[in-house]
Amino acid sequence: MQKIDFLNILDGEFSNLTYLNLVSPDLSDVKIEVQPFQVRKIIISYLNGKINSLNLNRWAEFLCFRDEYVSKNWENEKSADFYEDMWYVVQKLSTPEIDGEITPETVRQYLKELDKYFENQKLQND
Questions:
Q1: Cβ(11)–Cβ(51) under 8 Å?
Q2: Residue 109 is assigned to a structural domain of this protein
Q3: Parallel, antiparallel or unpaired: strands 32-34 and 69-71
Q4: Mind listing the pLDDT tens digit for each residue in 7-63?
Q5: Which long-range contacts (CB under 8 A, 24 or more apart) does 52-57 make?
Q6: Which domain holds residue 111?
Q7: What is the biggest distance separating any 2 CA atoms in the chain, rounded to whole angstroms?
């Protein structure tokens, strides 16, 4: 597995996802930053019917179980705390058997949980 594979999955390329193993060798030197806009993009793809709930679940599961995916400035504890809500949304998508079935209604709620990141971005850009 190469860095481009991780980037493609993060961007919603699911064709390789069924072939990639969650326990394939860790690429400890590879770190892929996950941003709220990327999580939002995948959720909106689901709501627009471009991907199904199974692929949304597989995507989230892959991100949760691979050490290559990190938050921006992941080595800084404050930054990691800032992105905790984003990762909680990804985690809930990865465990529908615990957090409830992936439906348009639940996914819309997850989008609302991500809103804080976009409000903050707007304030920072003003």
A1: no
A2: yes
A3: parallel
A4: 888 898 877 665 556 556 666 678 999 999 999 999 999 999 999 999 999 999 999
A5: 53/96, 53/101, 53/102, 53/103, 55/14, 55/17, 56/93, 56/102, 56/107, 57/93, 57/94, 57/96, 57/102
A6: 47-126
A7: 44
